[in-house]
Amino acid sequence: MPESIQTTGIAATAGSASDADLLAQTAIAVRAAASALRERFGEVVRYRTREELMRALAANDDAALDVLRPRLTLLRPDARWVEDELAGGALPPGEWWVLDPAEGNVNHLHALPEWAVTATLVRDNQPVLTAVHLPLTGETYTALAGGGAHLDGRPLHVSQITDLGLSLVATSQARPDEDETVVRRIGSSITAMLFDALVVRTSVPATLHLLNVAAGRIDAFWQFAGARADLLPGALLVAEAGGRITDAEGSPWTPESESFLAAAPGVHTEAVTTLSR
């Protein structure tokens, strides 16, 4: 059993055969929803006001949800839905679908390629499976609690690097209207990492950085605040790929935590030290 799963609160029980089947069907649903968004992708969507921006974002979300909801409802009729993709904190007992129907939605509107569709099933406040599809590359990332992380069926493994000074690290900046304290903390952490790491990447969305951590392409990712839909898919993928998931102080991470760190085991302690300065 991976150490990171034991120590972070992410589900550690091996998935049953039914969960494995459910993951396969969830991946199919996510790919179908991503195809709907792919048809809407191409030209930059122009907007002049915050209201116009929000309508454009909602239109993308609705296009994907129109595909996802009926398919996932058939798979798990009694599971409830997290309606607010920006929400954080613990969920009530039972099964919940946590979706980001257009992860990286602003990128999609700006004709940038960094966006995806995600679906994660949470059972009694533990993520048990997740599927993430990137339609522009055709890649599907999946993870099953206790069953490993995969890219198109191939096992994923985090980086084996042991020196933060040789590491590629990443973070996502604050959301619009983020609390000033969080914004300043993000800025300080980027400055600290610029001194200690090899290269620092700053962009959205968080999920795509976490896919790269799980695949061993990026050595660490951190974020302050953040939503369940941003972090749960990548947290399960990284944990199942052998990475460590904690908060920025090195304590066990939960969706109620105020910070998040996903790292290859060899650089995790150094990353915590840097972020704690």
Automatic annotation (TrEMBL):
Q: Which Pfam families match?
A: Inositol_P
Which protein, by its recorded name, is this?
A: Inositol monophosphatase family protein
Query: What species is this protein from?
Result: Streptomyces coerulescens
